[in-house]
């Protein structure tokens, strides 16, 4: 049997940290993952299948504008109630280390914490996080946070559980017209109706072949949703 058929836990961006009992996936063929991904495309993996997602030291390697899209894709791999573990870098933690260690060697190494080794493709850090930003992104992707700790003075380690299925309306409103689906999608993601000129633009995109899932992911990735979630959670 294939690893996919026998595993209900997935190790995303495994690198050389291949774990027993997990489906180990990566974009680098050198680390010999169970499944080789291309361009962060998770479409070949089953949705709502896994009980656990592990994403250690991955989120900072994804361009900042794609942070929410990545979290939403990871969420969609999980069953409701499934667990995600995320480890990623703390901008403020690294800043404190730089401030307290004034010698060249230390500061050189801590700079790598911020920007990556940059020794090979993919070994670049495109972003970093604070407690408020990381919490907001994780909550916005439909997770409830169980634990949120800082480790080694510069890393965040977060465990959370999938509490909301952001794709639910794709099935429950499959027969809806594009106009009705757009109204439902906006209310689910942003808590309001679509406004012009965006309403007309979305309808043109749908008529032109954009998938409803891609539209929904765009809305759930919107900065407006982050603002709303942050406000509700006093972040």
Fold and architecture overview:
This protein is globular. The chain has helices at 3-6, 67-77, 91-100, 104-115, 131-140, 168-172, 178-190, 198-207, 212-220, 223-232; strands spanning 9-12, 23-26, 35-36, 50-56, 78-89, 143-151, 155-162. A seven-stranded mixed β-sheet has the order 3-2-1-4-5-7-6. The protein is built from ten helices and seven strands. It folds into two domains: 3-162, Rossmann fold; 168-232, no CATH class. Helix 3 packs antiparallel against helix 4, helix 5 (131-140) crosses helix 10 and helix 7 (178-190) runs parallel beside helix 9 (212-220). The relative contact order is 0.11. The chain is an alpha/beta fold. Helix 2 (67-77) links the parallel strand 4 and strand 5 (78-89).
Record the SSE blueprint:
Layout: H1 3-6, E1 9-12, E2 23-26, E3 35-36, E4 50-56, H2 67-77, E5 78-89, H3 91-100, H4 104-115, H5 131-140, E6 143-151, E7 155-162, H6 168-172, H7 178-190, H8 198-207, H9 212-220, H10 223-232
Parallel strand pairs: 1-2, 1-4, 2-3, 4-5
Antiparallel strand pairs: 5-7, 6-7
Q: Report on the biggest sheet.
A: 7 strands, mixed
The CA-CA distance between the termini, in Å, is 46 Å
CATH class of the largest domain: Alpha Beta
CATH superfamily membership of the largest domain, which one?
A: Vaccinia Virus protein VP39
The CATH topology annotation of the largest domain reads as Rossmann fold
Architecture of the largest domain in CATH?
3-Layer(aba) Sandwich
Helix count from the secondary structure assignment: 10
Count of distinct structural domains: 2
Derived from helix and strand composition plus strand pairing, the structural class reads: alpha/beta
Lateral arrangement of strands in the main beta sheet:
3-2-1-4-5-7-6
Strand content: 15-25%
Instruction: Give the H and E element order.
Output: HEEEEHEHHHEEHHHHH
Mean pLDDT: 95
Radius of gyration: 19 Å
Q: Count the beta strands.
A: 7
Helix content range of the residues, please?
40-55%
Envelope shape: globular
Model regions low in confidence, pLDDT < 50 over at least 5 residues: none
């Amino acid at each position: 049997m294939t690893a996919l058929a026998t595993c209900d836990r997935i190790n995303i961006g495994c690198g050389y940290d291949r774990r027993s009992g997990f489906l180990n996936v990566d974009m680098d063929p050198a680390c010999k993952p169970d499944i080789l991904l291309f361009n962060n495309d998770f479409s070949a993996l089953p949705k709502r299948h896994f009980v656990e997602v592990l994403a250690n030291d991955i989120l900072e390697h994804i361009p900042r504008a794609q942070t929410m899209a990545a979290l939403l894709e990871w969420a969609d791999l999980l069953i409701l109630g499934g667990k995600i573990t995320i480890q990623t870098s703390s901008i403020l933690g690294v800043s404190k280390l730089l401030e307290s260690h004034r010698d060249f060697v230390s500061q050189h190494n801590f700079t790598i914490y911020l920007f990556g080794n940059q020794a090979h493709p993919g070994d670049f850090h495109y972003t970093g996080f604070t407690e408020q930003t990381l919490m907001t992104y994780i909550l916005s992707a439909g997770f409830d946070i169980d634990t949120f700790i800082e480790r080694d003075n510069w890393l965040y380690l977060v465990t959370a559980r999938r509490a909301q299925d952001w794709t639910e309306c794709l099935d429950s409103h499959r027969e809806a017209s594009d106009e009705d689906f757009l109204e439902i999608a906006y209310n689910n993601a942003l808590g309001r109706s679509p406004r012009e000129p965006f309403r007309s633009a979305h309808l043109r995109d749908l008529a032109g072949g954009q998938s409803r899932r891609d539209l929904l992911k765009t809305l759930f990735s919107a900065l407006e949703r982050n603002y709303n979630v942050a406000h509700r959670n006093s972040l």
